[in-house]
Design brief:
The complex is a heterodimer of chains A (289) and B (276). Chain A has 289 residues and is mainly alpha-helical. Chain A contains 13 helices and two strands, in the order H-E-E-H-H-H-H-H-H-H-H-H-H-H-H. In chain A, helix 3 crosses helix 12, helix 5 packs across helix 8 and helix 8 crosses helix 10. Chain B is 73% helix and 0% strand. The chains are: A mainly alpha (289), B mainly alpha (276). The interface between A and B is large, with 104 and 95 residues.
Chain lengths: 289, 276
Amino acid sequence: MATRHQTTLARLMVAPSVLLLLGWMIVPLGMTLWFSFQSYNLLSPGMERFIGFLNYEYFLSDPAFWTSMRNTLMLVGGVLVITVGGGIALALLLDQPMRGQGMVRILVIAPFFIMPTVSALVWKNMFMNPVNGLFAWMAKAVGAQPIDFLAEAPLMSIILIVSWQWLPFATLILLTALQSLDSEQMEAAEMDGAGAFSKFTYLVLPHLSRAITVVILIETIFLLSVFAEILVTTNGGPGYQSTNLTFLVYSQALLQFDVGGASAGGIVAVILANIVAIFLMRMIGKTLE
Amino acid sequence: MARNVSETRRWTVTFIAWGIALVIFFPILWTILTSFKSEADAIASPPKFLFFDWTTRNYSEVQARSPYFRHFSNSVVISIGSTLLGLLIAIPAAWSMAFQPAKRTKDLLMWMLSTKMMPAAGVLIPIYLLFRSWGLLDTRLGITVVLMLINLPIITWMLYTYFREIPGEILEAARMDGASLKNEILYVLTPMAVPGIASTLLLNVILAWNEAFWTLNLTTSQAAPLTTFIASYSSPEGLFYAKLSAASTMAIAPILILGWFSQKQLVRGLTFGAVK
């Protein structure tokens, strides 16, 4: 039994991390909230004043906001569909007996360890560049007109780059989950005459549901704040075509120095993330324990 | 596995899997190859895959053009520093949550996880302004503390899942034998906890090395790690494919190697112990 002394000690040991995280959450968030009601521009210091909800009015009525909102959801949704769908397919493939499985796994997981600025620049210059990129050369080789991916389909291109980074993650998690599937169960199903499709729907997919949920949760956390990939490829452009909410807040604060407006945007981003988080936590709560 | 698989099928699967794996890996391979080309060969059309004049000049030129090794050592200091600092704070917390769970422990862990969901955009402005007035912008100390804070939930969770697997009976036995709390920690827990701590360290160094929101926003030159340095190649005047590739290869190589060693721990750490 824990004595009172031990309980106190246990609290003391947990305290630093809780206090730090609490401080990290509450202090800046409180400040963002405070700024969001101020007219506050870094270019005119000393002119701060309370303006109520005006920043929110401006931010929410700005067409850039709705574009970036749509882009945020398309980016998260698009990457999730590609990586979870592709991840399931790849995991099923890699789970089959084959030669050199370890090496294949190593090659497939590699993109996850590449820093975002490197992968974005490599894709931008060496693959998607309309003059010197490999894609342009491939297009010319078959007699087609090279496409300037980042100018003509900026958001799709960024979705592609980010998916390349996250597909390995989904594959690795799903493969790990798949390998814990009871092979006797599979054999029993085969003996009962279950086809590949029904084995997948009634055995594999339910077994993977927990891992899929986790993949969606973790990826969503990171995908809501995709930033570096946008900064080094398109800078949010052309126009606002590839600006997500994170990037919009960044550009309003650190490029246009509009602290008040950017703070209102930050609060909107927090609210959006919370709505998503509530959904996800419900999902996770159901699948975890 | 008692199931028989036909040889043909095994070879078909092998063929398809290797094909897909090579496509996925190709951008990395291409970067490494390009880093050994001259700038002219790097943009040659048709592209030169293996038959070009191999040169290591780009590697020395990257350092000559910029203080590459300063950025490299910044990355090392920041990623290892933030992880060690995080471990220092998280180990006691995870230890006590695993061995003396209170009623609220589960909620507390969930709350820690939820702090990861707060979008960086929501706190960027105050952190930037506070750092500016405290003189922490573009300092190793500032960025190290921020990276420690953003990885603290993951570190705590990971350690918790490892510590929880240490059987409590061993502790009880040690106590029966009259071990003091100090001896309990030193001789019983530490040896059993070291593998878990090592895995946590590895994964978090990787995450911190590749972190590219806070490093891009809070560092510019003096404290800039490789993420920020590589981003400087995005300006058109900095566009040299071979040099970009050399700088990139050096930036990703150490972490790629560490990463390959940590595959198993990666799954566990990033799924908060839900998938093992």
